[in-house]
Write a structure and sequence with these properties.
The structure holds 2 protein chains of 2 kinds. Chain A is mainly beta. In chain A, strands 2, 5, 6, 10, 11 and 12 form a 6-stranded mixed β-sheet that branches. In chain A, strands 3-9-8-7 form a 4-stranded antiparallel β-sheet, with no helix packed on it. In chain B, β7 and β8 form a beta hairpin. Chain B is built from no helices and 11 strands. The radius of gyration of chain B is 13 Å and the shape is globular. Chain B starts with a strand and ends with a strand. Classes of the chains: A mainly beta, B mainly beta. Chains A and B meet through β5, β6, β10 and β11 of A and β4, β5 and β10 of B.
Chain lengths: ~110, ~120
């Protein structure tokens, strides 16, 4: 079975500092990995995905994520945080051996302090 | 706005009543998904359609839940005899099916409160 863990419920970072939101996954086959962001009263917005190829993927709003197969991780990063990045972030995985659905992590609340 | 839309945005009902939610996906997307999200949790998969065919259902989808996508366009999710435990945000998403790894685009959700 597939699963996703986001070990931190909350991440606080000062504006202008780099940020990292952690994600680890478990699948039996090759993973497809995704990051989504959720703002209050809005739907989930796609940020980026890893399918194959380069382990460092770049996405929307200056975010990037690094796929690490040996550590089964897919951490989200941004070099310089903005106050407007404050939101709920979800990591998701799809195991191609287990159908079409995504399995989401529990979410990490990011607070960027001015 | 050409994104995924859901109606209603909020629904308050009494225990035992039936409710129906509607989702309109992005027009060219042939896959449509339903998820449930409770406070402090990530979305949990309920079911998905490819065109009008319902191809996968989660064990979370009890007999009181039924979903349809009759013409391969919009979809409805009905919950019969609602229970307080059904209170949650119900999310709809759509995607293209090309090679199966396209990202899903989510609607704003329907928040259900069962009193």
């Amino acid at each position: 079975a597939q699963s996703v863990a986001q070990p931190e419920d909350q991440v606080n970072v000062a504006e202008g500092n780099p940020l990292t939101v952690k994600c680890t996954y478990s699948v039996s086959g090759n993973p497809y990995l995704f990051w989504y962001v959720q703002y209050p009263n809005r739907g989930l917005q796609f940020l980026l995905k890893y399918i194959t190829g380069d382990n460092l993927v770049k996405g929307s709003y200056g975010f990037e994520a690094e796929f690490n197969k040996s550590q089964t991780s897919f951490h989200l990063k941004k070099p310089s945080a903005l106050v407007s990045d404050s939101a709920l972030y979800f990591c998701a995985v799809r195991d191609i051996n287990y159908g079409q659905n995504f399995v989401f992590g529990p979410g990490t609340r990011l607070s960027v302090l001015p | 706005d050409t994104g995924v839309s859901q109606n209603p945005r909020h629904k308050i009902t009494k225990r035992g009543q039936n409710v129906t939610f509607r989702c309109d996906p992005i027009s060219e997307h042939n896959r449509l998904y339903w998820y449930r999200q409770t406070l402090g949790q990530g979305p949990e998969f309920l079911t998905y359609f490819q065109n009008e065919a319902q191809l996968e259902k989660s064990r979370l989808l009890s007999d009181r839940f039924s979903a349809e996508r009759p013409k391969g366009s919009f979809s409805t999710l009905e919950i019969q005899r609602t229970e307080q435990g059904d209170s949650a945000m119900y999310l709809c998403a759509s995607s293209l099916s090309y090679q199966g790894y396209n990202e899903q685009f989510f609607g704003p959700g329907t928040r259900l409160t069962v009193l």
